[in-house]
Amino acid sequence: MLISRRSWLKIGVAGACALAAGGAVYRLAQAPAAASRCALDGEALAVLYAIIPVMLGPVLPAPPAARAAALTAASGRVRDAVLSLPLATQLQVQDLFGLLALGPARRLLTGVRDGWAQADPAQVAAFLQSWRTHRLQTLQTAYHALHDLIIGAWYADPSTWEAIGYPGPPKALLA
C-alpha cells in the first residue's frame, strides 16, 4: 500500500492537532503550579553524591563511615546554600539538576550511561572537566555553578577548616 504525499501531510497535521489538543486538556486539568523553593532530593541527591567526592577529592575522610557522614553533611549544606539563593536562581539550579537527572540528557551531556548511583568517579571527573573547558558558555556556567555550590558549601562549615590549616576569621572581626 502506497500513501500519497497529500495523505501523509493530512495524517501529520491531524496528529499535530491531536497532540496540541491533548496538551491543552492536560494544562486545563492541572492546577497551576505555584513557584516553590528548590528541593534537592531524589535523583538530585544522587547527582550530588556522585559529584561531591570528585570535586572535593582527598579532602573527604577515607574511612567509609566518616566519608558517608561527610557526604551527607556536604549535600545538606549544598541544599541549604541553594535555599539561601533568590527564588529565580533556585529554579535555575533545580533545572540544572533536573537536566542531569534526565536519562537521555545525562547520557548526551555528561557521558554517564547508567544512573548517578552507578557512575564511576573517572566518568564523573571527565564530564566535569569537559564542562569546565567546553566551548559552550552555558556548560561552563553550569560547571561553575556546581563547583561554587559544592566548594563554597564545604568550606563554609567551620568543621572543615582544620583540614586545610585555616584558623578561622580574625578574632577582631568576630568582636
Question: Globular, elongated, flat, extended or rod-shaped: what is the shape?
Answer: elongated
SS element count, helices: 8
Which percent band covers the strand fraction?
Answer: under 5%
The description of the largest β-sheet is:
none
Task: Domain count, please report it.
Answer: 2
* Mean of pLDDT: 85
> What is the end-to-end distance?
87 Å
SSE-based structural type: mainly alpha
Helix content: 55-70%
In angstroms, what is the radius of gyration?
22 Å
Low-confidence stretches: none
Number of strands: 0
- Written as H for each helix and E for each strand, in order along the chain, the element string is HHHHHHHH
Keywords:
mainly alpha; TAT_signal; 2 domains; Twin-arginine translocation pathway signal protein; 175 residues; single chain
Task: Describe this protein's structure.
It is a single chain. This protein has two domains: 1-33; 43-160, no CATH class. The protein starts with a helix and ends with a helix. With 175 residues, the chain is an all-alpha fold. Helix 3 (64-83) crosses helix 7. The protein has helices spanning 5-29, 43-56, 64-83, 87-101, 103-110, 121-132, 137-155, 171-174. This is Twin-arginine translocation pathway signal protein.
